[in-house]
Amino acid sequence: MKRKVTKAIFPVAGLGTRFLPATKSIPKEIMTLVDRPLIQYAIDEARAAGIKEFIFVTSRGKGALEDYFDNAPVLEQELRRKGKDELLELLKNTNMESGAIAYMRQHKALGLGHAVWCARRLLGNEPFAVILPDDVIAAEKPCLQQMVEAYAETGGSMVAAMEVPADKASSYGVLDVKEGHGQLVSVKGMVEKPAPGTAPSNLAVIGRYILSPKIMQNLNQIKSGAGGEIQLTDAIALEIEKGRDVYGFRFNGKRFDCGSKAGFLQATVAFALARDDLKDELSAYLYEIMAQRKAAQ
Ligand code: G1P
User: Fold this and answer.
1) DSSP code of 173?
2) Residue 186: inside a domain, yes or no?
3) Average pLDDT, the chain
4) Quick one: which of 51, 59, 140, 262 has the most CB atoms within 10 Å?
5) Ligand 1: distance of its center to the CA of 107 in Å?
6) Helix-strand-coil percent breakdown of the chain, rounded to 5?
7) 119, part of any domain
8) Is the separation of the CB atoms in 190 and 239 below 8 Å?
9) DSSP β-ladder status, 157-163 and 246-250
10) What is the tens place of the pLDDT at every residue in 76-116?
11) Beta-carbon contacts of residue 90 (< 8 Å; ≥ 6 apart)
12) Ligand 1 atom, smallest distance to 205 CA
């Protein structure tokens, strides 16, 4: 019988240098798409997929993240006094039950694989999910939920996958596909950030994973890989070498690369246009500036 996936790791130790100077004093994961921090999207997706335990791998300077998930008694009291029930309701989603959330420090930035390995003692012998909050996925059914349902049939390990343009493949983990052309593909190899022109396909890993606990043993074994870092991709590739199943899952949905400024802005616009309270005003403005740009050309 395949076990349920109830624990998720959120690697949030990165310095966020691409968003300096903002990230000098706020963690990147607290930056907002409209009015919700990136991390809230990740948490909501995890909850929808049935995750009950949330493990954050953090680093120095990420205190604001811990506060974000804590109760805010003074603020709540004030909102209650003013009868702002809607806002109180909104805050409820940010509160975590005591004991449902754990913070683990990654003392050195040694890579994504190392960040995941830092959580090993909290996982036990169960499959677990990994969510990279930089990858925000807008989908009717949240991406991790789609994967949990597929995983219930397959077991093994599974990564979210998406076709990318060939000249972008070297920014990703890339799958070497054994078979399957539909939503689920079985994988015979994986390469992290292949040199330009050497990628085995253009099917890239996106930041959602359901992993066998054996990955932790693999992380003990592997040496540093691409960029001199301990790569999660290499630990998953080792599963394949050991004869165990790894799948790529082409999710339904639109992924935004919120690790880049352009991706972050696109996500901001897309999420704002999806909101009843903002879409009219914003789309009118977008039409206006596009018309001005055209006229100026
Ligand atoms: C990480 C992973 C990579 C994956 C990517 C998806 O890379 O190492 O395999 O394709 O996330 O966003 P990073 O973007 O942190 O360099």
Assistant:
1) E
2) yes
3) 93
4) 51
5) 20
6) 40, 25, 35
7) yes
8) no
9) parallel
10) 999 999 999 989 988 887 888 888 999 999 998 899 999 99
11) none
12) 10
In this structure, what CATH number is given to the domain that contains residue 87?
A: 3.90.550.10
Residue (of 192, 207, 197) closest to 255 by Cα position: 207
Q: Which atom of ligand 1 is nearest to the CA of 192?
A: 9
Instruction: Please tell me the predicted confidence (pLDDT) of residue 2.
Output: 64
Tokens 């109180």 appear where? Answer: 88
Query: Which of 258, 186, 222 has the alpha carbon at shortest distance from 112?
Result: 222
Residue with tokens 């349920």: 4
Is 72 inside any structural domain?
Answer: yes
For the record, the structure tokens of 111 come out as 């890579």
Contact (CB, 8 A) for 54 and 11: no
In the chain, how many domains are there? 1
Measure CA 66 to chain center: 18
User: Is the residue at 125 inside a domain?
Assistant: yes
Q: Supply the pLDDT for residue 129.
A: 98
Max mean pLDDT range (2-11, 216-225, 231-240): 231-240
Type of residue found at 190? M
Q: What is the pLDDT of residues 232-281, one digit of tens each?
A: 999 999 999 999 999 999 999 999 999 999 999 999 999 999 999 999 99
- The 10s digit of each residue's pLDDT in 164-193 is 999 999 999 999 999 887 899 999 999 999
Q: State the residue range of the domain holding 75.
A: 7-259
Q: What are phi and psi of 187, to 5 degrees?
A: -115, 135
Alpha-carbon span 232 to 153, nearest angstrom: 23
- Cα-flanking dihedrals φ and ψ of residue 165, to 5°? -60, 145
Contact by Cβ (8 Å): 72, 91:
yes
